[in-house]
Amino acid sequence: MHSRGIVTILFVFIILALAACGRPLSVSQSAGDIIIFPPPPDTPRIQYLTSISTSVDVEGAQTGFNRFLFGPSEPVPIVKPYGLTSSGSKIYVCDTGLGGLVIIDLREKRFEQFVPGGKGQLMLPLNCSVDDRGYLFVADGNRREVVIFDSDGNYAGVLKGGEDFKPTDVKVEGNLVYVASVTGHLVSVFSRDSLNLVKTFPEVSQDDPSYLYQPTNICIAGGRIYVSDMGDYSIKIFSADGGYLGSVGSYGSHYGQLTRPKGVAVDSLANLYVVDAAFENVQIFNDAGALLMFFGGHYSRHGDMWLPAGIALDYANTGYFESLVDSDYDLKYLIMVANQYGPDKIGIYGFIGPKND
Prior knowledge:
mainly beta; 4-stranded antiparallel beta sheet; 3 helices; globular
């Protein structure tokens, strides 16, 4: 190829790269009325903003020129998401249908599948956590281990328990790693540095109110550990040293009751968010355990949910979604909910407040 042709091609690629860096995130709101919770005349608190289900929702549709150069490409889907978390500008989605994770970089507008092999091969990635080094911890229910990857995605080790160890969720807090084990009826605490088991809790009999029948998800906030106990239809709360503090929720179909509690999250005001896979909604409780509101519902439109599992709150990436917020409101933080089925795999909601409030 002549040198002039090489220069021309390089120039085209530079122009395309600059254009990609400057474009906004390719998320869009559904047509029609803005979807808010609770509905009028109550004061709006949460707005459904958009969803992320395929690579197109992040990277945008393939351009005609890109298709000319490289041929047509199909959108890459999120198959069956379960748990999710965010760190920096990245959203990490455990995809049980993929057997790996989808990593979404909002700043770089990049959508990637992470499917490690070898020692790091995943079988049933349920939930994940990222520490301050950028290390990724993945609770794998079928491997019965928490698999660890370094900041470059390389295999870095595993956390192992006993015969009854079947991890369903993992959270890193400082130098400790907290793991919920659905069959072990315990939370196991490991050293992040040595990977050794430090302690387990609660070590109680089944007739004790703190007993964990079927712990599925955990959240650590404000020095407290919140454990979603699907087998007891409640969220059980422990102190940092594992002491039992009480519970939120009970079995039933009324407001404030739970049937299949899964993902849990806590905001900066100590309000507790609980995903219920049976009600297909998220209920919000205050720090005294009183129900504040709920949002979602059985899927019939955007903003509803379809077998939801994981939830994550994000205060760092509001700027990528502010253009979708009703002009009368400010966006305080993001609420991300993973739906295992339906067209909206990752529902993105915003906690909103009146401007200048």
